[in-house]
Amino acid sequence: MSPYRIVFVEQCNMTYNQASKERKLQLQLEELRLEAYKNSWIYKQKVKQIHDSQILRKEFRVGQKVLLFNSLLKLITGKVRFRWDGPFVITNVFPCDAVELKHEATNITFQVNGHQLKTFHEGVTPTVNEVESILLMESAISNGTP
């Protein structure tokens, strides 16, 4: 009888070979897990770098017209609302994409982040004075159709 069994009333687990094999397997499993973590981290960094290289950088100039994203827009059923407010005129460009805007109608100036802006492209504006009217009844009578 071993001294361990006399003191603790049960047999001591003395299978060192089996314990060493289990410990080696645990170490190998931990090594594989760390390697997989490292590989996934490298993959994420490469994907982030590729994604960031494809993002177009916005460059704003003083006097340029821009639209401001309306982040406080609430979805109301039955109503059509635009997500972009403006146009606003850029009065100052600060570092780190901060931009100072001036509202054309009210002349109020305020600062916003550059990622909330997009350039405003002015199209051909219709003139109010020139209106063409077409009377449908006269054209039907002049053609001789009833």
What does this molecule look like?
The chain has 146 residues and is of the alpha+beta class. The chain folds into two domains: 3-54; 65-119, SH3 type barrels, CATH 2.30.30. 36% of the residues lie in helices and 20% in strands. It has helices at residues 3-8, 16-54, 136-143; strands at 65-69, 84-93, 98-103, 109-113, 117-119. A five-stranded antiparallel beta sheet has the order 4-3-2-1-5, with no helix packed on it. It is elongated.
Short structural summary:
The protein has 146 residues and is of the alpha+beta class.
The amount of helix comes to: 25-40%
Task: Show unreliable segments.
Answer: none
- SS field, number of helical segments: 3
What structural class is derived from the secondary structure elements? alpha+beta
Q: What is the CATH first-level class name of the largest domain?
A: Mainly Beta
CATH fold assignment of the largest domain: SH3 type barrels
